[in-house]
Amino acid sequence: MRHDTGDWFKTVPPAVMYAAYDMAVDLVDPDPAARFEQAGQHSSFMHTMRVGASLIHFAQHHDLSEKTQHRLGLKGILHDWAKPEVPGISDKGEWTQRRRLWVRKQHTRLGGLFVARHMGHVEDAAGLRFAVEEHHTDIPADYMYRPPQEAQWWGDVHALQIFDRMDAVSTRPYVAERHGAVTAGNIVELALSADHRAGTQALSHQVYIDGRVIDVLPNLNAIARAVVPA
Description:
The chain has 230 residues and is mainly alpha-helical. The chain has one domain (5-227): Hypothetical protein af1432 (Orthogonal Bundle), CATH 1.10.3210. 58% of the residues lie in helices and 3% in strands. The protein has 10 helices and 2 strands. It has helices at residues 14-27, 32-38, 42-61, 66-78, 97-118, 125-134, 148-171, 173-179, 187-192, 217-227; strands at residues 206-209, 212-215. Strands 1-2 form a two-stranded antiparallel sheet. A hairpin with a 2-residue loop joins strand 1 and strand 2 (212-215). Helix 1 (14-27) packs across helix 3, helix 3 (42-61) packs across helix 7 and helix 5 (97-118) packs antiparallel against helix 6 (125-134). The longest helix has 24 residues, at 148-171. The chain is globular.
């Protein structure tokens, strides 16, 4: 079941979505949609914008600093930025598990190279590259007890993975098909649970951002009510 992506404006105000787009224009590419459109990847472009906007809105909701809003938003925007560069990404044919894992490996590698080559002007470019390269990596259970910079980087990746998965379960038909019916009652559980076919671990709904442990459930439940018909 594919849900109208316009429903996201019910939980992410249009101003936040536009802020994410402006961030992409100002810091990444004057025409950010073009690279995706040329590769037949419009849905991936909208996904990056929604994840970036969701992370900005999450940070605003929990009164995190503007600096943190910017940091998380940019990581959301860029996490799948290299997908159009993956050879054969738009080829027709069955999306087997092997193909999905190959695309995952390639777009994280190419995304890291993009950040290294083109995003050195942003603050904490190393943390940005880390997020892009590791957003499909298992989160260490003890990350919040690690040295401050490492804890922050993993905390950002943790939040990114949660909103990345929430968007995928909400809007990507192939994800929903793996789980059967997606309802307001199970969508949050699906986003946080392990999916062995996709090679993903279960995620805690408590993330560690800027020295705080923050419960993401209220944000996810709000999204669930908006994107899944009652």
